[in-house]
Specification:
Layout lengths: L1 E7 L4 H12 L4 E7 L4 E6 L3 H15 L4 E4 L1
Helix pairs in contact: 1-2
Amino acid sequence: MTYKMTVSGLDCPNCAKKLATLIEKNEGISGVRLNFLSESLTLDSDLDFDAVLAAVKKAVAELGEKVTVKRR
């Protein structure tokens, strides 16, 4: 299933790239596409939305940025 989210609060494109890499490391998540300018995150996963959101929020915490993530 493809999930789409809004990710706001990233400081720079490099932070977006780091976050995408951290998200992609989660088992069951692939095809992570994070666009810094449009604040859009798209990814593929067989997991349910709650599990995907938890993985994304964990990656945000690891990055150490104040970032807001919500479903589109």
